[in-house]
Amino acid sequence: MFAIFKCFVFTFVFVLQVKESSMVVVLNGVLADECPTSVRALLAAHPGYRDAAAQLLAAAPRVVAPQGLLYVAQRELAAVVPHDKNVTIIGSDDATSCIIVVVRHSGSGAVALAHLDGSGTAESAAAMVAKVQQLAVGYPEGRLELQLIGGFTDPHRYSDELFANIMLSFHRLTEEIDLTLACCCELNTALTGGSPSPLVTGVGVDIRAGDLFPATFPDKGPELPLRCARTITGGPNSAQVLDIYDNAVGMLRIGPFNYDPLRGVDLWLEQSDDFILQHLSTTPNVEPPHFVHNIRVTLKFIQQHPFPAVTVFPDSRPHYYRRDEQTGCWLPVRF
């Protein structure tokens, strides 16, 4: 995954069991008194979640083509509806210690997906629920459902902390939401040669059928180096989880945002692949083969565009992409 500098964002203080007057995350159809902020605590009270995770892990992974795909990168979210003519699958991958969050309204089929790494978690939870509720207006039947996929028992327990933060973020909202899947942390961990690794690092959602499946996405959509640059550099927009889809016009929307110039970018580009892997990933032993290549492409983009507000978004307007009817891929829109 594009898991750069995530050690800087896990600065949270967690309470392992939070008791409040009510709980809005519904577990197995019941409002619980306590918020389980670890998978172990969740399974102790509700062992059925192990079976739900096992079903996902047993499903055949799919390699998803770009046609009809809305890909959500790290620190991004998007929401769509089944009748959207531009999107058939929404998904994300390369989540090693990150967690992919899916919120769905069972009546309307409206679905939101986010790829979270610890930045902007509470804001993302609120935004996802608000977006899905907005898209579900007019459908009196149905419930909000929450699905969590990704993360593993990594050596630094980043995924465990992120799982806790996600659970607490949804718990503190006012809307009831049913946790239907938690394929995370210890439920998503394999021991390969004695070392832990994630079993599923990507997931897709068929927005018409509502099905969720393990997936990889060779094509991750337009301007990926620009989109990933925020996670490396820092700055006023780097910690935000950005909504990348404009439902009103059915277009992919990138930016505008700014990031700080990356000091020493030239020096980073001179380093070996192994050096980059070891120093720019929090989970170097389980990164996909394309990780270092993506890092280098992103670093080169930052080198060429140290001030994106000037060179990439000079008019402070988003970059829009529409779905081409013939190819099914995203094409830039010039205004």
From TrEMBL:
Q: Which GO terms describe its molecular function?
A: protein-N-terminal asparagine amidohydrolase activity
Offer a single GO CC term for the protein.
Answer: nucleus
Domain of life where this protein originates: Eukaryota
Q: List the InterPro entries.
A: NTAN1 (IPR026750)
Residues making up the signal peptide according to the UniProt record: 1-21
- Give the stretches traversing the membrane: none
What Pfam families does this protein map onto?
N_Asn_amidohyd
What is the designated name of this protein? Protein N-terminal asparagine amidohydrolase
Which species is this UniProt entry from?
Answer: Leptosia nina
